[in-house]
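input
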Amino acid sequence: MPTTTPRQDSPPTLRPRDRRRRRVIVITLLGWVAANAVALAAAGRALPFDWPGVGDRSAAGQVLDADLRALEALLIIALAYALTRRRAVPVPELAARAPGRRAALRETLLLLAYGACGLLGGFVLARAFGWHPFGFHLAGSVFGTHEHVAPAEALTWACYNAAVYGVVPLLWFGRRHPAAALNLTSRDRRADARLVAVVLLVESVVQFAALRPAIVGLDGAQLALGVPLTFALFLLGAVLPAMVFIYCLLVPRFLRLTGSVAATVVLGGLTYAAMHLWDAWTVFDSPGHAALSIVFLLFTYVPPGMVKTTLTVRTGNAWVHVWAYHALVPHTLVDTPHVTHVFGIR
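output
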């Protein structure tokens, strides 16, 4: 009687989309580990940055802090997925908000070139007046700076960014695409509001616990004037420019070109980091300092940029990240003391 060997079940195979997602995750993790190695090798005991808000923490401690902030961002991303698991916008629908692949590639390259020109123009304009170069953050934001920022610099920074990255691109693309195609409408306002409330609450608790923001030391008059002024200044100079340029325009095109949510989230984070190239603390006076500046730009801005992209992709609404994870926390919470100092509010 012939014997038969039991059939071995073949291991499950990953679908192309799953393999692409795994590849993106692996490459991103390897890149992060490599950035850790570069930072530790190039920094020595201390970093060359003007960070009065950080104190005397060692370079290794700063790298560890960056890793913990990245972990916190991943937890926020997981929270966003959990809260939107039953209502996430289908990937094909979101990708369809961009034009066909050839047109999407052309528009993406033009937008990135336009963003680079905007950074160059911000450098030239600011230096002409003896100011810090204009990027997506006002000099002294988040980390602080020992150099004083004049009110004229702060107002010009906000107006420049609002015009270059917000008004001009929105007018150009708004004539060709409806608001829904620009991620400016909500499919479910109540669900979006619930997501905003939860993420805002969680991030506020984290910011208070980790940073102990100096806003708690301001008096009533400083809060009454400084909070709305900070909110308006950073809404114009940082929040709306980032929303329009990256999350309304580039994110749907990234998704159209890659067909991958994971790749889109990473590209959104990298673009967000690139738009902060001129942060006042960066130092480019030597190859080693330049490498550290690039690494810590990535450490500082890729994780929150990925969170913002995730919130946009999962809801199809670029306004969600504005209120949940940008305008109020961190900027109004963290930067109000800086703005009160800039404008002499006592």
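quick obs: The mean pLDDT is 93.
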